[in-house]
Amino acid sequence: AANDEGPVIEMNWNLAEYLPEWCGAQSNFNNVIASYITAVYEKMKEEEQQHEVGTTPVKRRCLSQLTPSNSRPGSKKSSTQDKEPSKDDAAAHIVFARELIAGELAQKLFFVTQKIQKKGSKGRDELDDEEEEERNMMMATLTKSLDKNPALEFVKSVCKVLSLDPNVVDQVTKLRRDLLKLCSVGEFSEAGMWQDPCISYSLPELICRACNHCRNLDLCRDQHQTRVSGRWAWQCPVCKSHYDSTEIEHQLLSVLHNTSLAHVLQDLQCARCRQVKQPNMTTICSCGGDFTPLMQTKKYQEKISIFHTIAHHYQMPQLEEAVAWIIRGNNWTSCIA
C-alpha cells in the first residue's frame, strides 16, 4: 500500500523470526530487505511514469547497426544482430537493482555484518523480558539447529531472500561469497549453505468451529499462536478464536497411524528394473537387482521426529506417547535429540 508519505512495506518473513534480536540481526534484516524493496519499487515507478500512455519508448541502436556495410544489398548481417539480448538490453529497474546490490547495498551489508559479528563475539546478556524468553525457547524447540554465529545466519538469510530474483543472481552470488569470507566461512562449505531454520508440518483444510474459516495450518510456522492455560494454542486469523488442540492431536494421531501402517505394509521394488516384488520368498529380482522399500526409512524417521517435536512442544500427551513407543521399538534415539 502507498500513502502520501511513500510506500508502506509489510514484512512477514518467517525466516527472520529465527534470527537473534539481541545482536540486532532481525531488525537489520528487515531494514536491509525493506530498503532494497523500496528502492527497486521507486525505480520501477519512475520507469513507468516515463513510458506514459501515448508515448513510444525508443531503443537506441548500436554502432554495428549503423555501419554502411550492413546497409548494402546482399551484404551479410552482423553476428551481433543474431545474438540474444545482453544484460545491457535489460529493463532499467533490473540494471538499477544489479548496480544497487553490487554497490550501495554491498557496502551497507559489510558494515552491518561486522557490527553483528562484533556484538555476537561478546555474547548475549541475560533476558529480562519473560515473553521474549518464552519465544526463544519456542524457537529452540522447533528449529532444526541453532547456530552460535548470528552474523553468519544473517548473511545466509539476506542472500537467500535477494536471490529470489533471477535477474540479480550473479550479483548476489558474488556478494554472498564476499560476506561469507568476512565471516571466515568458505563459499562451498556446509556451514555457508542456507537451510530452512524451522521444521514444518501442515494440516490441510482445517475448519474453524466459530466462523467456519477453512485454511491449511502449518503447526510449526503459524504466527497466530497464544498461550492458553499454560500451553500454546493456534488462533483463527479471521475471528481470533482458538482451535481445539485435542482435535488437532487426534488428527495427528490418525496421520501417524496411517503413515506407520503404510510403512510396515509397503511393497518392495527392484532397484534395477523398478518392478514391484511379486513372489514373497525371493530375495533378489529375476533381473539380479536387490529389492528396496518404496518408502525410505529415513523419510519415515524424519516425520516421526517432527511429530515428536510437535507433541513435546504443544503438550500433546497421547501423541507423544505413541511417538515414543515407535521410537523405542525401532531404537531411534536420534529422534529425541
Automatic annotation (TrEMBL):
GO terms for cellular component: epsilon DNA polymerase complex. Its EC number is 2.7.7.7. Pfam families: zf-DPOE (PF22912), zf_DPOE_2 (PF23250). Residues 79-89 have a biased composition (Basic and acidic residues). Residues 64-78 have a biased composition (Polar residues). Residues 265-321 form the DNA polymerase-epsilon zinc finger domain. It catalyses: DNA(n) + a 2'-deoxyribonucleoside 5'-triphosphate = DNA(n+1) + diphosphate. Its main location: nucleus. GO terms for molecular function: 4 iron, 4 sulfur cluster binding; DNA binding; DNA-directed DNA polymerase activity; single-stranded DNA 3'-5' DNA exonuclease activity; zinc ion binding. Its cofactor is [4Fe-4S] cluster. Residues 48-89 are annotated as: Disordered. One of its GO terms (biological process) is mitotic cell cycle. Belongs to the DNA polymerase type-B family. This is DNA polymerase epsilon catalytic subunit. It comes from Hirondellea gigas.
